[in-house]
Request: fold
Amino acid sequence: MSQKFRIARAAELESLGVLRDFIHDQCARAGIDDATTYELKLAADEACTNIITHGYAQMNPGSLILDLEIDAHQVVLRITDFGHPFEPSEPIAPDVQAALDDQPTSGFGLFFIYSVMDAVDYRATEEGNCLMLTKRRAPKVVPV
Amino acid sequence: MATKIVSKEYKRVDLVEISGRIDSSTAPQLEQTLNKVIKDGRFHIVVDMADMDFMSSAGLRALLSALKQVRRFNRGDLRLAAMSSKVKKAFELAGLLDVFQVFDNSVDAVGSF
Reply:
């Protein structure tokens, strides 16, 4: 049996803290370990930042809807928006040396999403754009 | 916890203490603080993360940008202290642990200059 939670907020950078708090609180309630929760918050933060800054670029800020579904094996986070479709493609590792040599420093956000999640899926439909992030739960350690 | 960034000027080093979270909405605050220290001609900086509980890529970019400025002409360095294991993992993934000097606490980081 899975537990489902939802939050909707304006697609503004000021909403990021509330969205992370939502993930934190629901994961804590469901007994998800701290490391997994942090990685979900990091991936969600990076994805929502991309949606706010690119997906809703040159538009009035619309909505960001987070649906969190937790079962015994995994946590699935669906992020829905109604901005320009912005499909995150799997990035290569950011070139830190290039960043230090005065090249533009970018690419960390997408890199983090793909590095810390087990699966990333994106669908753009008439009902909105949906980014699905899946993270497997860490197995419980049973004392011997 | 509201994000708070405080800089303290010592004789040889400036200590920038972060409490709370650094994301795209608060990273400009970190950038401004670091830029002010650098603009004042102070290039030995320690960033204390003991009370920081979250940092996204926006924070990493702010730190990298400051690192780039202080290392120019070999005039200084920006060193990190008291990073939590979760934040450390993000630095590790991005390959930044090879770029920054990281210390267990701010006393050691300040003493390293």
